[in-house]
Amino acid sequence: MSLSNLIDDWSRYRKGREEGGFHDYEHMWGMSIDLNKCIGCNACSVACYAENNLAVVGKEKFEKGQGMHWLRIERYWDEPDLGEERTSEFQQHGASFLPMMCQQCNAATCEPVCPVAATYHTPDGLNAQVYNRCIGSRYCSNNCPYRLRYFNFWSYYENSWPAPLQMQLNPDISVRDKGVMEKCTFCVQRIRTVKDSASMENRKVRDGEVQTACSQTCPTGAIEFGDMLGMYDPETGVAETKVTKMWRKYQVELGKTKQNKQTPELRGYRVFEFLNTDPCVMYLDRVREV
Amino acid sequence: MGWSGVGATLAGCDMPSTVTLEEGKEEVVSYLVPEEFVIPGVGVWYASTCRQCPSGCGIHGRVREGRVLKLEGNPESSINKGRLCQMGQAGLQAHYNPDRISKPQIRRGSSLVDATWEEAYALIAEKTANISGSKFAWMTGSVSGHQSVLLQAHLESIGSGNHFVHETINNAIWAKVSEDMLGDSNPRIRLDKAQSVLSFGADFLGTWGSPLHFSTEYAKFRTSPRGTLIQVEPNMTLTGANADLWVASKPGTEGALALGIANQLVSKHGLSMSGLSSSVQSLIRSHTIDETVTATGVDADRIADIAATLKRRSPSVVLAGASAQGHEHGYQCVAAAMVLNIILGNIGETIESNGEFAYESMAPVSGNTQSLVAFSQAAAEKRFDVVFFSGVNPVYTAPKSLGLKENMANIPFKVVFSHFNDETTAMADVVLPLASGEEDWGTHVAPYQAGVGEISIQQPLMEPLSKDTRGFGDILLTLLKKRNESAYEGFADYYAYLRNAFTTIPAEHKNGASDDQFWADVLSTGLIDVGVIEKALKIKAVDFDMPKDMGNSSDMVLAPSARLGFWDGRHANLPWLQEAPDQISKVVWDSWAELHPSTAKKIGVKEGDMVKIASASGEINVKVYIYKGVHPDVVAVPLGQGHDAGFSRYAKDRGVNSLSILDPKVDKMTGELALYSTNVKVTKAAKTDDVLVRFGGSETQIGRKLVSTVSADVFERTEGGDHVA
Fold this sequence. Notes:
heterodimer, A: Alpha-Beta Plaits, three-stranded mixed sheet, two-stranded antiparallel ribbon, globular, B: alpha/beta, six-stranded mixed sheet, 23 helices, 28% helix
């Protein structure tokens, strides 16, 4: 393989969605998370533990940064955009909460570094992790700017679910063993179930039919989940989904490292999009009356 | 315990465990011969009711191969509209908890030993055979529905009227003030209509009223035109963390601040004081801006700002919660907040009547802390020979200064209905192991419902994990049969009782369905709306005073802040919640003391250091978390940890219980425990090897655009009005 071939392939890969050819996406699952509505309550995170067989690691391992929270609520005290908190005596605009899960990047930095192709892009636009293939090099985790890949440093199944807690485990997905990387899958088992039933009924998946555990439970409805490629609805004749509508409304586009909005003040951004990771999660700015 | 009808879909499985093909292990498919309608591998959702807190949210449980795997909110429920909080999600871990009690226990000397139900019932029958009503009492958490009906029947069968209903997290003073001033103890709060909310410590997103319901309403409040939230409290709650303006208050000064704002509204903005008593009118006049600044320490500009915002962003709503009501003059503080609602014209606008639940015997009975004080007192006076406990853990929630634990020794026979070997259960003479929320039948009427009268059904989502646990209703029914066989002999079990109860419901609720069809419908939707008796709010003039010298001690004040998570400590045994970082401090698996940076500097401590917090009633040593979301004169130690060893492997040797060192002060009007009025001295203590573990490496974004914030002006300009998509 010549260097020019390599660069060529790489370039085609990065531009796969805009120019086509490299990926034939069947779906491209994405999200819109409204930080004006998010209250930082943790419901999504615990729903994720329940849905995805996430191990409870205990205080000592949590201290070492080994917590397995695929979806975590980050909490910051400063507001760089408002700029005044540092000097004030109190935390007068409250906290800044950020639900952070795998951003399902279309140009994922974790994918090309995997020596065994355990992490790859699926035709559903998901950044998938093949547990059976993973050899635990942790290169992907090292390369993820969002720090949301979680490594099984231990065989958690040995004592994270003392009987009868193990009866709660979701049989639709596996429990991961030591030496394997894991991360948010956008509840791939729920996607799978819906796709299977749609195909058995000889129809296409409908918008809103797949709900991730976090989006389903969110008390304020801050998390919107759906297909970024749109879904044709024979009843309304519209190809837009709730998520594509949100992205269009907030003038955020995939495949860009900097958004060029018609209304520059409009909310809506992707975390670290300047890194050209092309994440499929859009955040709507937090709002405060100042 | 037989079920039939829809319930039977869950019957017939033995104890399945993880799927494996190993020799001697379980079958791959747990049903050897599955029911006809069960498709292995396909989950089916059944409706039930969440029992993790008293709010009564509707849930759906996903059942596959006889196991309940996941809980979600029931979209039909007007309370939570399909949503569920982290405590609700973790209900599964209460059900599958490895530390659940699975057998009845009877005290033999100093220890509890396993026994049979026959032995337990025989002992109870013996001890209650000739008891006089005044010598018997029930102590429970909030209760409603048919469990409440049977519980009252049991009390009547003994001739007793002693029912102590205890909840540490409650709205008791808000309810009393609302009753006195509006003629309705449970008014409806229209967050969706409000353009501004001023909340004195009412953590309506976390622990106040019906948190999940208010979270769904909050989402509407925050859409354009976006409402403004102002939170006044001694330390930041989840609601405070979402405020546009968060104001630190010294505990006890909330009432003075409310009156100061009222003064501004009247004197600067020309609002009327009509409807208020003359004494309250003169109280408002006396709370001039200077007086209020002196009393509260809040800036004059800030007070004027808050008043102007409430006036400008009309309609508004003013709420008061735990930190405002937790004082010897708690009633007055809450009343002053309600006065603001009257002045601002919110009654009938954003505060309406919820109506009254039509069936009195099933109506919710909400707990308080006055009952805890009264119970401890009664026990001290040796008034009871037999006490039954269920859904409460008073030995943990009572401050040591009440002497409740010692007074329990004066009760010769204590029967505790329990899931776990908690502090109260450990003192029992008979322990009756309860079925979990996912194994039991019940009907529940939520204490806060937005103008509807829903009865929510609790149905088993799977077979009981243990053969020797019993449903609460089943035990009550058995106890009643032993006292009055003829009245209850027709009911084989609590299921049969409920089934029958639903045939007797007035025909207007059945929509012409047959009894069987109606029952099946109710089970499948999970609830039925039986309507409410319409009521109208009527403003009543009430007299109250506002003590001047409150909150001015040189000592610090302890804030035993409650969180959506461990609640009053009952969920410390759930590993998901132990490992879920606290929403504010992000601490896991531990207790912590919140201090303001200036206070920490004065004491000479940094994050993770140990401090000794000493009140007149005791002391605790706890690690420090420092941030700007707490008043400098306050040390906040959130509730939940500090349990005795027996409660759970997950809660064992973890943190402290800040309730334990509270002084036995009460609100003088209602007798409610004054939770935010204990003065403490905070000093540096020796560090231990045990470290404070927190999630997240950085408290700031270090200049990265992680959480971007825009002003409400920009939001309205780009998304308000015509711009709404």
